[in-house]
Design a protein that fits this description.
Helix content is 32%, strand content 21%. It is built from 11 helices and 15 strands. The longest helix is centred in the N-terminal third of the chain and has 16 residues, at 68-83. The chain starts with a strand and ends with a strand.
């Protein structure tokens, strides 16, 4: 299920970035006393009381200015309003109601989306400084101090209560996010699979800006392909449309079962490709690497594909467990094999191993290599069981789990994979203390 988006909007220098950092819990956004510091957008994943959501920080909105920077920020904020499920309208309690506040509030009301008025810089909760904001016709004002954190807990309680409920669907369909950098051929690839031009294809980088669902049936299974906008490095995202395309891509990953990461064979594996792959892998999604434009790859030999795969695994060790497919979306070469890989990876990702089998495997691995002993403490692993699927997660119980070194956990991980595969899926190993 895709996470909701909460956007922080307001005039310049009211403390939006301070509030963003306070909620995210790290100093991600640039904070300065100079108005207009936040020129680009920042977003991060936030969590409160068991609820996760994307939080977006926007530049200060100056409605009457026609300076190029102010026009750009206004466009970005309008994009934020369009994309958000809930908006936090931040005002400065020390300044009081500013004429621009009323105009911004009109924009929010016209959006017909839920929003909340946050009076920032209320360092003393017993202060009455923020009362005048009720003149704007709101039913509730949330006083906070982003600098010292006062009132932020009450605000977040209200935020998670106000986020519109999204019904979680329990469809049997396998959702596949087609991800990658711009202009690597994602839309052409999906169109080739679907057998029709459902998605716009253009030589211009970044044609696809929204995530688009495209369903199909294959071997009596329903598959839903999500063709997403290309994901650039965040510092390279220069306008609001590109920024929210990146956010939509991350949401598409969150709501998918399997990710197909498309690589341009003519450009090779780029650092941004590795970051996108890790984003999907750490999110627990199945992963398939599709090397597109293979027909254009120069100096190709019978061993080129294996060399490409080997070099990729040297850069990122978990690529050893990920299937690679070398295709051409234009000629159709091996494109349909992606469908079989999707079903295979989803089966592996949802695979459940019986406790007896897991314990037998653990015994074999321990017999082959005992866990290192800690100084003055005996270290024993007693039993193991699979506790989750999607992705598979195995809990290993012992008397001193904190004494198990990382290299031995990797040994167990590789041993379990050697037995069961879990091709294309992350496999998580967690250590637990055995109850006495």
């Amino acid at each position: 299920m895709s996470l909701p988006v909460v956007a922080i909007v307001g005039r310049p220098n009211v403390g939006k970035s301070h509030l963003f950092n306070r909620i995210i819990g790290e100093a991600t956004a640039i904070v300065s006393d100079e108005a207009g510091t936040t020129r680009d957008r920042h977003f991060g994943r936030a969590e409160w009381a068991g609820h996760d959501f994307w939080l977006v920080d926007t530049g200060g909105l100056v409605e009457d200015s026609y300076l190029p920077m102010d026009v750009a920020i206004r466009r970005q904020v309008m994009e934020a309003i369009e994309e958000a499920d809930l908006m936090l309208f931040v005002c400065d309690a020390r300044v009081g109601v500013h004429p621009s506040d009323a105009r911004i509030m009109d924009l929010l009301r016209n959006s017909q989306k839920p929003w909340m008025l946050v009076a920032n810089k209320v360092d003393n909760p017993e202060s009455a400084d923020f009362y005048e904001f009720y003149r704007l016709g709101v039913t509730e004002v949330y006083p906070v101090s982003a600098s010292n954190g006062k009132g932020s807990g009450d605000l977040l309680d209200a935020v998670v209560a106000a986020i519109p409920e999204t019904e979680e669907t329990h469809s049997e369909a396998v959702r596949i996010a087609v991800i990658g950098r711009p202009n690597v051929g994602k839309s052409s690839f999906v169109n080739r699979l679907l057998g029709e031009d459902r998605l716009v294809v253009h030589d211009e980088s970044g044609t696809t800006r929204d995530a688009i669902d495209a369903p199909m049936r294959y071997h009596d299974k329903e598959l839903v392909f999500v063709d997403t906008a290309g994901l650039r490095r965040q510092s390279k995202i220069d306008d609001g449309v590109e920024f929210y395309s990146a956010l939509r891509t991350r949401r598409a990953i969150d709501s998918s079962d399997v990710c197909i990461l498309m690589i341009d064979a003519t450009e090779g594996l780029q650092n941004q490709d590795l970051k996108i792959a890790t984003m999907a892998w750490e999110s627990g999604r199945g992963l398939i690497m599709v090397i597109n434009k293979w027909d254009l790859f120069e100096d190709k030999t019978d061993k080129s594909a294996e060399k490409f795969r080997k070099e990729a695994a040297e850069k990122v060790p978990y690529f050893k467990f990920v299937p690679f497919l070398f295709t051409s979306a234009i000629t159709g070469q091996r494109v349909t094999k992606a469908l079989d890989l999707v079903l295979q990876v989803q089966e592996q990702r949802t695979r459940r191993i019986s406790t007896s089998q897991v314990n037998d495997a653990l015994e074999q691995l321990i017999a082959r290599l005992q866990p290192p002993q800690a100084a003055g403490r005996e270290v024993k692993l007693n039993y193991a069981t699979q506790v989750e699927v999607s992705p598979p997660t195995i809990a290993v119980f012992g008397n001193n789990p904190e004494a198990i070194p990382e290299h031995y956990i990797r040994y167990l991980h590789n041993g379990f994979r050697e037995i069961w595969g879990f091709t294309g899926s992350p496999l998580r190993i967690i250590l637990r203390r055995k109850n006495s």
